[in-house]
Specification:
14 helices, two-stranded antiparallel sheet, 13% strand, eight-stranded parallel β-barrel, alpha/beta, 317 residues
């Protein structure tokens, strides 16, 4: 039987924001998180991912993750789907995270390949099969070899796509050939989602349904505009928006995500930009790149512009 959650995830398209977790020191700033969710919905975003890479999931206790999912679901109020991260190097722990997400009323889970342990393709298949068999939620696979040191081979992806609750793929490999080769081999219900902001438009042009994005945290309306232009066949406009956003996209990946995006949202007054160890605050070079990109888009707050101008003044003699 098809559940409401499965239908919502099966229709997922457009820009889905991979939300950062706001901190004030070591404490989660729930108010800023709720405000961020509401703002994103108002800007037209298609959904949320909570407790993913951008959310610093490895630094969160399972109880913290559950509370964030519940808050996102409460704010979303059925307006957009909420996808919860459930990635781990351990299959048993990934299942625990997925069950916790289900108990918190998530619409689906985003499950990365097991990191660090570098499993074989059979191990990857069995990991996701165990996750599939343990929970009723739809699963979006997440392939990000730059972080996990393993990837989902094309044959393994085809095997996994045959499982009823494997709903799609977040592809952060940067390899655009895979969607070209497999788009027609895999059931049309399967959702193809880019996980790479820099190549998201090209991915969609090859048949992708959208992007699970870091960039859309900062410029959600512009990302929605890009997607809508692509959807109506106005590739000229879509590429113009992508070019305009390219400096910000580059700045947001100048060092490990989510350090730059949290700095950007901090400069914009959306949250305090604190991160948890082992991440460290943005370097001076990253801060400048982010501020320059925001300034070019007219997104620096008045306070930030004043601070920037003050920092540029020569020292008193």
């Amino acid at each position: 039987m098809t559940t409401t959650a499965q239908r919502r995830v099966a229709a997922l398209a457009g820009y889905v924001s991979a939300l950062p977790t706001p901190f004030r020191g070591e404490r989660i700033d729930h108010e800023s998180f709720a405000d961020l969710c509401e703002w994103q919905i108002g800007q037209g975003i298609s959904g949320f991912v909570v407790n993913g890479t951008t959310g610093e999931a490895p630094a969160l206790a399972i109880g913290e993750q559950r509370l964030l999912i519940r808050l996102a679901v409460q704010i979303a109020d059925d307006r957009v789907p909420v996808i919860a991260g459930a990635g781990s190097a351990s299959t048993a722990h990934a299942i625990e995270l997925a069950k916790s997400a289900a108990s918190a009323s998530a619409d689906g889970i985003l499950a990365t390949t097991p990191y660090y342990v570098r499993p074989s393709q059979e191990g990857i298949y069995r990991h996701f099969r165990a996750l599939h068999d343990a929970v009723e939620l739809p699963i979006i696979l997440y392939d990000v070899p730059s972080r996990t040191a393993s990837t989902i081979a094309k044959d393994t992806l085809c095997r996994l796509a045959e499982l009823s609750r494997i709903a799609g793929l977040k592809d952060a490999t940067g390899d655009l050939s895979r969607i070209k080769l497999l788009r027609e081999k895999i059931d049309r219900r399967f959702r193809w989602l880019s996980g790479d902001d820099a190549t998201a438009l090209d991915f969609m042009a090859l048949g992708g349904h959208g992007c699970i994005s870091v960039l859309s945290n900062v410029v959600p309306r512009r990302c929605v505009e890009l997607y809508q232009a692509h959807s109506r066949g106005d590739l000229h406009r879509a590429r113009a928006v992508a070019r305009e956003l390219a400096p910000l996209t580059a700045a947001l990946f100048a060092e490990s995500n989510p350090v730059p995006v949290k700095y950007a949202l901090g400069v914009m007054g959306r949250m305090v930009g604190d991160v948890r160890l082992p991440l460290a605050p943005a370097s001076q070079g990253t801060r400048k790149a982010v501020e320059d990109a925001l300034a070019n888009l007219g997104l620096l707050t008045l306070r930030a512009r004043k601070e920037r101008a003050h920092d540029a003044l020569p020292l008193s003699q």
